[in-house]
Amino acid sequence: MKSAFLNEEYSDKKEHLLVKWIRKSDPFIPELSLIAFNQNAGIIGHILLSKITIAIDSLALAPVSVASPYQKQGVESQLIHAALKRAKELGYHSAIVLGHKDYYPKFGFKPASLWNIYAPFDVPEEFFMAIELTEGSLKNVQGVVHYSKAFSE
After folding, report:
1. CATH number of the domain where residue 29 is located
2. Residue 47: exposed, middle, or buried by beta-carbon count in 10 A (0-12, 13-18, 19+)?
């Protein structure tokens, strides 16, 4: 899915490598690595949630990739909804995302700073968001998110 990020302004164009690094790490959760499949084109999208810690175990939603010809057709939304639903079914209670401030709120993400949760790097607060998969799960959580080593390779 390297091509999914070629035209993204805020991409380092290494998201495909991030998937590879996460898949080789302990925080990888195979059940939360989902694909979108098209009968004619094969795999057209991918989403990955992996373990992180704040003061509790949580999940990082990253990356979400959809092949260029299938972008803006709802594939990414379907992947996000499916991944968050599956995460909740597996007993996870929250997730963090670094992404477009106007896109992720439609899935229930809010600025993580509302819970006093912050990124371990400099980023505008409105781009660093969290979601409670279980109501109240972030109520007493605060601090800096600790990503797995895969995110810093």
Report:
1. 3.40.630.30
2. buried
Model confidence, pTM: 0.84
Q: Residue 56, SS3?
A: coil
Contact (Cβ atoms closer than 8 angstroms) between residue 109 and residue 97 = yes
Q: What is the DSSP letter of 128?
A: E
Reading phi first (left if > 0) and then psi (alpha if -120 to 50, else beta), residue 8 is in: beta
Residues 6+ apart with CB under 8 A from 86: 31, 32, 34
Question: How far apart, in whole angstroms, are the C-alpha atoms of residue 95 and residue 2?
Answer: 24
DSSP label at residue 5: G
Find the domain containing 121 and state its range: 2-152
**Number of domains, the chain:** 1
Q: What is the pLDDT of residues 18-45, one digit of tens each?
A: 888 998 999 999 999 999 999 999 999 9
Please tell me whether the peptide bond between 120 and the residue prior to it is cis, using omega within 30 degrees of 0. Answer: no
